[in-house]
Design a protein that fits this description.
CATH superfamily: Hect, E3 ligase catalytic domain
Order of helices and strands: HHHEHHEEEH
Organism: Rubroshorea leprosula
CATH class: Alpha Beta
CATH topology: Hect, E3 ligase catalytic fold
Oligomer: single chain
Structural class: alpha/beta
Largest sheet: 4 strands, mixed
Radius of gyration: 18 Å
Enzyme class: transferase
Distance between the termini: 50 Å
CATH architecture: 2-Layer Sandwich
Protein name: HECT-type E3 ubiquitin transferase
InterPro entries: HECT_dom, Hect_E3_ubiquitin_ligase, HECTD1/TRIP12-like
Number of domains: 1
Family: Belongs to the UPL family. K-HECT subfamily.
Length: 148
């Protein structure tokens, strides 16, 4: 068994930050371009890849900072990281469906079923409203369990 101290002195690692070590050991984070997302996300129950709410959602996800992407992933899957192989290796596949709301979808929050990697997304009136409600759900919904 090899020990890191047999290859180099462990003290040399102190020049790196935690984030730099993570990058060196874990590699780049997955690509979150719209095309990558389209290739590995399933749309169902009222949504297709060309539905306006889906286009807005994919643009929002693509624009997210790494911290928001991690929080989004945690919200939808229950895990802060994708498995090796990225979105293509996520099982079950990330599925986004239309959440049927009452009279005002803008007041509703997205909900998830983390065991199935399933996002229920209301048809918001604008991309800005969707981003606002999504960020709220992501930040306030961590660690919560509700039936939806």
């Amino acid at each position: 068994m090899w020990l890191s101290s047999q290859v180099f002195s462990i003290e040399h690692l102190q020049i790196f930050t935690e984030e730099e070590l993570e990058h060196l050991l874990c590699g780049e984070h997955d690509s979150w371009t719209i095309n990558e997302l389209l290739d590995h996300i399933k749309f169902d129950h009222g949504y297709t890849a060309s539905s306006p709410p889906i286009i807005s959602l994919l643009e929002i996800i693509e624009e997210f900072s790494p911290e928001h992407r991690r929080a989004f992933l945690q919200f939808v899957t229950g895990a802060p990281r994708l498995p090796p192989g990225g979105l293509a290796s996520l099982h079950p596949k990330l599925t986004i469906v239309r959440k049927h709301s009452g009279n005002c979808a803008d007041a509703d929050l997205p909900s998830v079923m983390t065991c199935a990697n399933y996002l229920k997304l209301p048809p918001y009136s604008s991309k800005e409203r969707m981003k606002e409600r999504l960020l709220y759900a992501i930040s306030e919904g961590q660690g919560s369990f509700h039936l939806s």
